[in-house]
Amino acid sequence: MTPAVRRGLPRVPGGEPWPPAGAAPAAVHAATEVLAAAAAPPASAPPTAPVEASRTAAVEAPGGVALRRGLPRTPGGEPWPPAGYAPASAAAPVDAVPHAVSEVAPEAPSPAPTPVPTPRRMGRGARVLIGLAALLVLSGLVVLIARWLVGLAPVERFLEDYPGTYALPEGAPVGIPAWLAWQHFFNVFLMVLIVRTGVEVRLQQRPEAHWARRADPRNRISLSAWTHQALDVLWVANGAVYIVLLLATGQWMRIVPTSWSVVPNAVSTTLQYASLDWPAEDGWAYYNSLQQLTYFVTVFVAAPLAIATGVRMSLYWRGGARWDRIYPKSIARALHFPVMVYFVAFVVGHVALVLATGARRNLGHMYAASDAAGWLGVVLFVVSVVVIAGAAAALRPLLIAPVAGRFGAVSGR
Fold it and tell me: How many helices (H) and strands (E) does the chain have?
């Protein structure tokens, strides 16, 4: 049987297609004969043998495998290739694949790395409890050491020589006027709000709103920063009024040291407080030396330092390039936060001593401006705490934005 050969392009220009019609290479004849031999059913197989038997016979033949048949090569002919099985050359790749795969041993998966256990972070509540416990232990040690010291003979003589106070200058005022009581409330009110907004500015990463001057809308600050600086302006104005009245009424003599004996007397007062043996005092007439030094540092050192560093960091700074080199913002930032920590520590210690050394009388002095106010000072103190807490809770963008919008442009994120 001579198979039909598909003809291609001529070998020479103008010639006939190659190969000539009816001719087939020897290789094609050999392949055809192999296919015909493979297609012939074995003599022992019955004509009606099932398909499975023919498949078994094909497998038993050398390299035989059933092929999928396609379209006929000649019009009206049978599908190509003829019915039967492929020669060994065609079946080899199919049979070789499983053997090749089976001969290659699969690589053992590398063991997963042992995960390093992540240390669990301590919760905020646990840290607070540990901090309070450490503070109590430290306070207990301080009390024990102080009580041991005041029992020594040299320290006893020191406490007798410096009881904790010294004589004020002649003409020093006695008592606390009403304006000073109101100034005290305004100062505490503004300081709490300033600290609250200052901490918020320091910890805030994505402000909910921004503020900018209408003349310079690109130079924006967070709405919390604007609130913090606006409260600073009010605090500075209140402090200026306080200083003027302090100097005009002679009240400065109560908080400004006028003798170097204030230093040993302050040490004596500290020992007496630490040993829980409260020093004799009369806040209506004078402050002890430790109070005097503390108030002086707070009013005349910490407050100006807070103002100077705050102005450098604020939008009100107009120093110019020369002053920017002399007084960099990094220095102001490094000092501003510790000053705020000092104010927080001062308020906490101040309130603790006021409550521990005669709360009703001390609060009567500070809030009722009277030495015989009874419980009026306590009531006013409680009211002031409620007002301050409510104001701190009200410092939200929803309530602050309308006020800030009167002084500039408020925008979202």
Answer: 16, 3
How crowded is residue 355: how many other Cβ atoms within 10 Å of its Cβ? Answer: 13
Give the pLDDT band of residue 66 (cuts 50, 70, 90).
low
Task: Give the number of other CB atoms < 10 A from CB of residue 32.
Answer: 16
pLDDT-derived band at 49 (thresholds 50, 70, 90) equals: very low
Domain 151-411 in CATH 1.10.10? The answer is: no
Q: Is the dihedral of CA 256, 258, 260, 266 positive or negative?
A: negative
| Cis bond upstream, residue 397 (ω within 30) | no
Are the C-beta atoms of 216 and 408 separated by less than 8 Å? Answer: no
Q: Which residue type is seen at 359?
A: A
One DSSP character per residue, 235-269 reads HHHHHHHHHHHHHHHTTHHHHS--STTHHHHHHHH
Q: Assign residue 363 a region (left: φ > 0; alpha: ψ between -120 and 50; beta: otherwise).
A: alpha
Sign of the four-CA dihedral 141, 147, 151, 157: positive
SS3 29: helix
Q: Compute the average pLDDT of residues 21-37.
A: 54
> Locate tokens 């606390």: which residue?
176
Query: At 111, is the secondary structure helix, strand, or coil?
Result: coil
Q: 82: buried, middle or exposed (CB in 10 Å: 19+, 13-18, 0-12)?
A: middle
Are the C-beta atoms of residues 82 and 36 closer than 8 Å to each other?
yes
